[in-house]
Amino acid sequence: MPVAQDVIRHAAERPSKLAVCGPGGELTYAELAGKISGAARHLLRRGIGPGAIVALALADPVELLAAVLAADLAGATPLIGDHTWDRRRWSQVTAPVGPVAFVGRPLPYAAGPPVRREPQPDDLAWACFSSGSTGRPRAIVRRRASWTASFPHLGDLAGIGPDDVVLVPGPLVSSLYAFAAVHALAVGATAVVPGRWPARRSLAAHLAGATVVHLVPHRLPDVAGHPGSSLRAAVVGGAALAPGTREEAGRAGLHVLAYYGATELSFVAVDVDGDGLRPFPGVEIEVRPEAGSAFGEVWVRSPWLAQGYLGDAAGPLRRDRDGWVTVGDVAEPYRPGEVLRVRGRGDGAIQTGGATVVPEDVEEVLRKVPGVGDVVVVGSPHPSLGAVVTAIVEGAPPRSLLEATARSGLDAAQRPRRWYGVPSLPRTATGKPARALVAARLADGDPGIRRLI
């Protein structure tokens, strides 16, 4: 069932209940249902229906959610992008996808009869980009069942129901936050969508009314034990929790549900009580050993997997003939029934101070430095920024030259703050530097990786 139909059902049962609240206003379920239906009729009259891809670039998160659900109700595939991209940037990122219908303004309302169609589990019902505006995004698409059928499991694990107020304090271009907002509407809760991390005063006001929050790990200390907070649960994804963070939240009366996944894989494993990551319902996990390494590559088989990349774009997602997939993440050896210990992210995207940095973009610039044989860029944990960009250089160029090149060729968020050197980088079977393995060895304090000073 499309989430829009869930919203319409909630509107019939509790029309005056607040559905969504954003910086530009709020809508009851009755108002949201009417807005979605009218916008879906508008799309269909423009010939935008089943099989069409609708690129959405709206700054207002409430209008964006309404447009997403309207596209879904019309049978089209909504593709959320960054509203700050200009049309040239949009043309670049959608070129592999093919023709798209672009929506850069709130959709108008069109009167008419209810929109009726028979949704199918295999409908392409959701698409998003795999990285933010500092990278080269790939559009990932998933079928309806792979998305919405996981909703009840998350609801049960986190205890999210129709009486909750769910704070989603991040941009909806992120699949983590978009999923959280749509899940809240599917279960009939109130979704609070400020569109970005709120300023201190706004955060305090949101926490006074919210019962559940979705966020990334480095933001958990900002909400745990906040004076006047009504939070009872936090759903945390995107990276591993720092030691002691869960315990600190627990002392403040906040239950933490942490999960591991990827945009291409959706949910893979979940930690509900602090005892470690276990497979998310319906998920099978294998860690396949890598020759000469203490770690292995994480492979997953589940109902929640993405269909793939739109336009057959290249990306880290790989499949085998038995239905297992991987994005190259690295973990310690694993057997069913044990705790999964993930050690590195295969896609390598680094979340630093609210920006998304794609390692390949940084590596491309640094490879031009004389004396650099090759380079791997990873994220290193940071208490306030979430992560900092870290470069591991093959060779022995002076750090001053590396930093000068970074200043001249990279944005501020992309510039490495930590520099290391190695005689040679480990490589995959295809000859590429093994980024996730390098990250795991760095985290383990491998003496072969030396700090550049």
From TrEMBL:
AMP-binding enzyme C-terminal domain mapped to chain residues: 362-432
Source species, domain of life: Bacteria
Gene3D superfamilies: 3.30.300.30, N-terminal domain of ligase-like (3.40.50.12780)
InterPro entries cross-referenced by the UniProt entry: AMP-bd_C, AMP-bd_C_sf, AMP-dep_synth/lig_dom, ANL_N_sf, ATP-dep_AMP-bd_enzyme
GO molecular function: acid-thiol ligase activity
AMP-dependent synthetase/ligase domain residues: 9-103, 114-310
PANTHER family: LONG-CHAIN-FATTY-ACID--COA LIGASE, NONRIBOSOMAL PEPTIDE SYNTHASE PES1 (EUROFUNG)-RELATED
Name of the protein this chain belongs to: Long-chain fatty acid--CoA ligase
Source species of the chain: Nonomuraea aridisoli
